Amino acid sequence: MLAETLTAGLLLITSVSALPVMSPLDYVKRAVNPGVVISQCTQPNMLALAYDDGPYTYTSQLVDILDKGGAKATFFWCGTLYGCIYRQEAAVKKAYASGHQVASHSWSHNRMGSMNANQIRTEMTRVEDALVNLVGVKPAYMRPPYLDTGGQFLSTMKTMNYKVITNDIDSGDWNNVSPQQSQQRFQQAGARGNGHIPLMHEVYPGTVNTLTPWLINWANQNGLKLVTVAECVGDVDGAYQPGNWTAKVGPYNC
Q1: Which residues are catalytic, by number?
Q2: Does 251 sit behind a cis peptide bond, omega within 30 degrees of 0 on the bond before it?
Q3: Average pLDDT of 186-197?
Q4: What residue range is the signal peptide (predicted)?
Q5: Would you tell me how many other CB atoms lie within 10 Å of the CB of residue 61?
Q6: Angle formed at CA 236 by CA 231 and CA 238, multiple of 5 degrees
Q7: d(Cα 201, Cα 216) in Å, to the nearest integer?
Q8: Mean pLDDT score of the chain, rounded to an integer?
Q9: What integer is the mean pLDDT of 117-140?
């Protein structure tokens, strides 16, 4: 009996030693739960450039800057804030084709914490329909206008399978903060620890032409990988709702 026990023990040790060496993180699959607010990356050495309020006049130019810098970003788009999303069809398709993440910022950019569940669903499904019609995907990520997550908003996002993003750095571009002042905010936050998800807006030329190139250089100098929000929270395959979606026949309107 003793000999059999020793033999079994040796076999177990041998089989374990034959396993590949893995870090503790390899055994943990981080869940990105819908309806739960996420404000920062869950992984270090990353920066998730994230832009709200488009698509707009500068979207195509911003995509060019990002692509030239080898950066991936996330676009939280509205349906009607700066004109009808369908009027920016070329820019929307260009951003998606370049590998950037397209996500929702609601249809009309109103405070969703003050809406009932049906109103919230309408805000979200209209953006879904537009993105299916334009690029064939439904987003699984969203950032609420004004970062308002009150009322029935989070429970509705959970039922709709949306991951809710806010931010851990505010560029302040929406409040007339200059690109140079925004740069100081990133420097103060630093490049160590888990990566940042900033609040920025693609509708301001200073953010597109000055802040974004600076951030690309800052990330490179600090060894940060410029990734989508989905990648920075360990959900690279979960950027979009699962399923095959059929675009409606145009013409489209808002």
Answers
A1: 52, 201
A2: yes
A3: 97
A4: 1-18
A5: 15
A6: 125
A7: 16
A8: 90
A9: 98
Residue 194's DSSP bridge partners are: 44
pLDDT of residue 30: 52
Buried b (16+ CB within 10 A) or exposed e, 208-244: bebbbbebbebbeeeebbbbbbbbbbbbeebbbbeee
In sequence order, which residues have a C-beta less than 8 Å from that of residue 74 and are 6 or more positions away? 48, 49, 50, 51, 100, 101, 102, 103, 141, 165, 228, 229, 230
Contacts of 157 (CB under 8 A, 6+ apart): 34, 35, 120, 142, 164
- Burial (CB count within 10 angstroms: exposed 0-12, middle 13-18, buried 19+), residue 1: exposed
CA 55 to CA 59: how far, in whole Å? 6
Say whether 141 sits in a helix, a strand or coil.
Answer: strand
Burial of residue 58, with CB atoms counted within 10 A of its CB: 0-12 exposed, 13-18 middle, 19 or more buried: buried
Q: How many residues does the chain have?
A: 254
- Angstrom CA distances, 154 to 34, 74, 100, 112, 179, stand at 8, 21, 25, 10, 32
What single-letter DSSP state applies at residue 126? H
| Bond from prior residue into 55 cis (ω within 30 degrees of 0) | yes
Strand, helix or coil at 78? coil
Question: According to the model, what pLDDT value does residue 250 have?
Answer: 81
> Is residue 213 within a helix (H) or strand (E), and if so which, with residue range?
helix 212-221
Q: Which residue has the tokens 């920025």?
A: 200
